[in-house]
Every structure is written in structure tokens, then in C-alpha cells.
């Protein structure tokens, strides 16, 4: 009876842990950009189904701001430096609260300080920096992955851009790609349930075997 009780306790613990995964599944969606051919663009931009390549030598800063729906002077206020020209792309998506936009990107600095060219992405009228020359160094580069979680459901304009500051020469570039799979896949809820229950049985059987061995040695 003691062994049976322990097994039941372990199974209840396993079922309780599984309940968190099965009964409370996440409703959030991961939004992974898979095709850029339908995006709108302004300036020096190359679009394909796999990636978007933007060069900072494009149109005026005010044209980029108007294209993305940003306030006049937003780019200069964002980076505290005069912005001369740039390029951008945009698309519109509808999301639910908790949805996550994820993408891979690479910034290649084609200039040197104090000409602090920078790249960014925008969600509606919100600007978010990806990288600038001050971060990567003169003629440096960086590649990374970024995720943005939407806290409010709605329809949003998503934008990416790269700009020249202080001059119009020695362009920098931004490449945006669909996010790669990255690490190991997350197991499905039923897989988690099976693993927990199987583990509970294994622990219970090991405990039972030890008890039987003790009883045999005493006989």
C-alpha cells in the first residue's frame, strides 16, 4: 500500500505539471516574415521572397518619415544627429495581443564616425534602433535576431529603414531576413504530458524495486 501511494502521488504531481501546459496553452502567434515581394519601398531597396536589402543613400529624411507615418523630424530626434537621406520598406499586419514579430537582420556600416549612420524598425509611430556606427565601429557590421511583442491587438504598419547622418556619402546598408529556426523545437503539450507521466512511472518503479530488494535481503 505504501508503494502504491507513492506512485499515485508522483502521477498526481506529473498530471498537475502537465495541466499547466495542456490546460493553459499560449494563444500568441509568432509572426515570421517569409516574403518581402509584397512590401512597399522608398529609396534604394532590393526586395525578394527571402530578404530585403536597403541602402542609406536614398531619398530625403522627410520622405522616409512621411512614408512610414512618422512625425516630421522624428529620425533626427531619435538619434540626436542630423539625418540627410535614407531608404525604408513597410507593410501592414493585423495582430492579437501577445503576438510576436521576429526577424533576422544585418547592419553593415559603410561610413565612419562622426557620421553615425543607423538602422531601425518602426511599429506604427514607435521607432526602435537596430544598430549604428557608434555601436559596430567604423566600417563594422553586426548580425542579430530581434523580436517584438504586441501588447495591444490591432492593425499596425511595420517598417524598416537605414539612414545617412551628417552627409550623403559612404552609404551603410540594412538587410532583413526571415527569422531562422534557431535552437531545438519546443515539444507539443501532449509530448510534455507523456514525458511527465513516463517519468513519474519510472521513479515509482525504481522505488518499488528498491523496496523489493530490501525485502529479499531481509528474508
Describe the structure.
The chain is built from 5 helices and 12 strands. It is globular. The chain has 2 domains: 2-26 and 185-218; 34-178, Sandwich (Jelly Rolls), CATH 2.60.120. The model is unreliable at 1-25 and 181-219 (pLDDT under 50). Strands 1, 3, 4, 7, 10 and 12 form a 6-stranded mixed beta sheet that branches. Strands 2, 5, 6, 8, 9 and 11 form a 6-stranded antiparallel beta sheet that branches. Strand 3 and strand 4 (51-55) form a beta hairpin. The longest helix has 30 residues, at 189-218. It has 219 residues and is of the alpha+beta class. The chain has helices spanning 2-22, 61-68, 74-79, 133-136, 189-218, and strands at 30-32, 40-42, 44-47, 51-55, 59-60, 83-95, 100-108, 118-123, 126-132, 141-149, 154-165, 173-178.
Structure in a nutshell:
32% of the residues lie in helices and 36% in strands. It has helices at residues 2-22, 61-68, 74-79, 133-136, 189-218, and strands spanning 30-32, 40-42, 44-47, 51-55, 59-60, 83-95, 100-108, 118-123, 126-132, 141-149, 154-165, 173-178.
Amino acid at each position: 500500500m505504501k508503494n502504491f501511494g507513492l506512485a499515485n502521488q508522483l502521477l498526481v504531481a506529473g498530471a498537475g505539471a502537465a495541466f499547466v501546459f495542456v490546460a493553459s496553452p499560449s494563444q500568441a502567434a509568432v509572426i515570421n516574415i517569409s516574403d518581402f515581394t509584397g512590401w512597399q519601398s522608398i529609396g534604394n531597396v532590393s526586395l525578394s521572397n527571402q530578404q530585403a536589402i536597403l541602402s542609406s543613400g536614398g531619398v530625403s529624411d522627410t520622405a522616409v518619415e512621411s512614408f512610414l507615418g512618422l512625425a516630421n523630424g522624428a529620425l533626427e530626434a531619435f538619434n540626436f544627429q542630423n539625418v540627410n537621406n535614407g531608404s525604408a520598406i513597410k507593410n501592414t499586419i493585423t495582430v492579437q495581443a501577445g503576438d510576436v514579430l521576429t526577424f533576422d537582420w544585418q547592419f553593415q556600416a559603410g561610413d565612419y564616425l562622426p557620421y553615425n549612420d543607423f538602422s531601425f524598425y518602426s511599429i506604427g509611430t514607435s521607432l526602435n534602433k537596430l544598430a549604428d556606427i557608434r555601436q559596430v565601429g567604423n566600417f563594422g557590421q553586426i548580425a542579430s535576431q530581434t523580436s517584438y511583442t504586441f501588447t495591444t491587438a490591432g492593425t499596425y504598419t511595420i517598417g524598416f529603414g537605414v539612414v545617412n547622418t551628417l552627409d550623403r556619402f559612404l552609404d551603410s546598408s540594412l538587410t532583413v531576413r526571415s527569422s531562422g529556426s534557431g535552437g531545438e523545437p519546443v515539444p507539443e503539450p501532449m509530448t510534455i504530458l507523456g514525458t511527465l507521466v513516463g517519468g513519474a512511472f519510472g521513479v515509482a518503479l525504481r522505488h518499488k524495486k528498491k523496496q523489493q530488494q530490501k525485502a529479499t535481503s531481509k528474508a
